[in-house]
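Field guide to reading this record: the first block holds the primary sequence, the second block holds the structure written as discrete tokens, and the final block holds curator observations. Each block starts with its own label. This record concerns Elongator acetyltransferase complex subunit 3, catalogued under organism Microcebus murinus.

BLOCK 1 — SEQUENCE
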Amino acid sequence: MSKRLFSHCCWCGDFSFLRGHTVKAVCESFHLAKDSGFKVVAHMMPDLPNVGLERDIEQFTEFFENPAFRPDGLKLYPTLVIRGTGLYELWKSGRYKSYSPSDLIELVARILALVPPWTRVYRVQRDIPMPLVSSGVEHGNLRELALARMKDLGIQCRDVRTREVGIQEIHHKVRPYQVELVRRDYVANGGWETFLSYEDPDQDILIGLLRLRKCSEETFRFELGGGVSIVRELHVYGTVVPVSSRDPTKFQHQGFGMLLMEEAERIARDEHGSGKIAVISGNWKRAKFMIYSQFELGTLLPLFMVIMFRIGLSWLMKDLCSNKKKIMKAVWPARAFRAV
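BLOCK 2 — STRUCTURE
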């Protein structure tokens, strides 16, 4: 583990941020979450005291390249000085000074250039009323300014959000022309990750994605150990199309999700050596897997049955056990399994 990154996250000079955990704990949390099938979205805060621009860049470079981190998503929150905080006292006494607006835009632009194509940048700043901010971000459109700076420098942001087909249609009036399956493999948090996507490579437009993981050998979820691979996310972008509807001008419900699942099953069977594939999903998506893909219910169903029995809804349980669709409407998110 990098001591440099540890110092950035937990301690800067003589000022402790009292996060209550170490970077090692962060890495372990990422590992446990991914081995359970969850997406991991990290919150990162540049412009902390006693760090500096170059060390901030080094920190983010390691964050995206070190297999102990490599999150699926990022929320980028530059430091804000708020009255009543310890940082406010440092700033008031002159021991802390925020980056200038131009330096902050430059920093965010350089960070966005580092983001790998399998990571989504959800946010670039917090929505905090400016009257509450004593020092820090001075622009409400920091992401937009950073992207403009990247254009001036001739570099691109290739995160998931920037490349989404819906975003490209709305902001740039472009549509995919030649769509093909793209595969990216990488190691992260003790497991083998495969990022599958349908894209237009020439225009760098993303239509849909799937995150497949072969869990680490020491996964704590017994049902995911050995011969099981897990789909941590399946998403097709673009304008929302109602369930059971199709629009030839839109991209949802055109079969991209099914094609991604079929390729994930092939990889799980032929390359991972898995006998089953698991999918983490919500109720309605799980119903779709059950109806169209012959998936079985996952491990949370027995707990659900116990709870329903205890509250005296035996009549509902009898109905649920005889009707798969109603089961799917009633059970909270869990995993579905299918033999591959």
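BLOCK 3 — OBSERVATIONS
The CA atoms of residues 134 and 310 lie 54 Å apart.
The two ends are 37 Å apart (CA to CA).
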